Amino acid sequence: MVVGLGFVSLTIDMVANGSASVSGAMLEQLGASAVLVGLVTGGAEAVALLLRLATGPWADRTGAYWAFTIFGYALTAISVPLLFFTPMLGAAGLAVASGLLLIERTGKAIRSPAKTVLLADAAGAVGRGKGFGVHKTLDQIGAFAGPLIVAGVAAVAGTLWPAFLVLIIPGAVAMVLLFWLRAKVPDPSLYRVEERGDEASVAEEADTAMGPESPAAPDAPAPSPTASISSASRIAAEAAASREVFQNFLMFSFFAGLTTFGLLSFGVVSFHLADAKLLSVGAVPLVYAVGMAAAAVSAIVTGWAYDRWGGWVLVSVPIMTVFVPGLVFGPTVAVVVVGVFLWGAASGVQDSTIKALVADLVPGGKRGAAYGWFAVFQGVGALLGAVVAGALYGNVGVLVAIVAVLQVAALILLVVVLRRRARSAPE
To answer: Does residue 228 belong to any structural domain of this protein?
Structure first.
């Protein structure tokens, strides 16, 4: 199941990241400014994250995780190839292209919480760090291949636009794989071994407490005062534990939002590469591919490290992020590539191992909603980071200072969460 979902992500990310690798440069060709590119690309990422606040709980309530996953992937598979037609629309092309980018990310918002629940269930049986890491690595192989396909087609065709039409092929493959997986594993909740064990323990304790007689039996003994006090104490302890889970989750979500702000949007980076004439538009995806390769490696490495050493491996995210803005807006291609490498490495951890800690912080039945709320913080960070980066495009020093301060705050929040979690862990 983990590998199957990984190959679905591999093929669909050829589509999504093939588009993302040139989104800013594409919009620049259609007449967009740096601020507009920041608004569109940052807004698209915000949509992909903020809408999960609704789609996550909705998926939990209905239990239709497969339906949400399939529909969300279908939106991406359809919307990206349609970008091929935007330069034919004249003045309306920029608006239509912006709308299609938003639709593609809406598909991400619809599928992501449900797909992550499916993945978390299956990964729980093999180690969540490894499971998320393996999935992210396969995902990033597609994210690496997609930009290469775009660059190759653009080089052959002499223009960018036919590359979007070619991406319909991996999109179709992804949909076939999804329906096959759905037929093979219709109910992935069967992988929730630890939850089933917990439920069995609760049922056994309840049976023991109730005794052989039904509660409705007329001769059932009344609960003793000692039992009532014990029950009240247990309820109070559970309430305190629930508050601590919420507080840890909230602080960790703020951590993710602050680091996402610092990672900006590649749309703004690709705009810089095209606007500063550092690369041709057709070559921009090659730089993006470097970031995706770094993300693939960092995802699998930190995933395995997470299972061994826990959440302390996430300290690497703000440390890498603090260097990103000053490098990705650098004056030479070499400097930008170094920045994109760090951007990709931090993004790989951000989109894989960080989610493993969310799964460990939140009980199984609430993870869909938790991933939705978690995405709100990341969405706000993505939008603000891209817009601020676009607005400060000519004043990078100020942007670097802002990101540095926010990463220090993020690091403090992470340390607090990990220490609180260590104190509450059973010995």
So the answer is: no
DSSP 8-state assignment for residue 126 = T
Report how far residue 117's alpha carbon sits from residue 315's, in angstroms, rounded to the nearest whole number: 25
DSSP letter string, 193-252: HHHHHHHHHHHHHHHHHH-SS-TT-TTPPPPPHHHHHHHHHHHHHHHHHHHHHHHHHHHH
Task: Report yes or no: 286 and 148 within 8 Å, Cβ to Cβ.
Answer: yes
Residues 6 or more apart in contact with residue 409 via CB below 8 angstroms: 258
Query: Which residues have CB under 8 Å from 60's CB, separation 6+?
Result: 117, 365, 366, 367, 368, 369
> Which residue is associated with the tokens 């970031």?
291
Q: Is the pLDDT of residue 196 over 60?
A: no
Section 398-418 average pLDDT: 95
Unique residue bearing structure tokens 């020093």: 397
CA dist., res. 340 & res. 263, Å (int): 10
Range of the domain at 278: 2-192+238-424
- The answer to whether position 100 is within a domain reads yes
Comparing 218 with 321, which gets the higher pLDDT?
A: 321
Spatial neighbors of 231 by CB under 8 A, at least 6 apart, are 223
Please report whether residue 224 resides in a domain.
no
d(CA 121, CA 288): 31
Instruction: Identify the CATH number of the domain in which residue 121 sits.
Output: 1.20.1250.20
Is 204 contained in some domain? no
DSSP letter assigned to residue 390? H
CA distance 73 to 75: 5
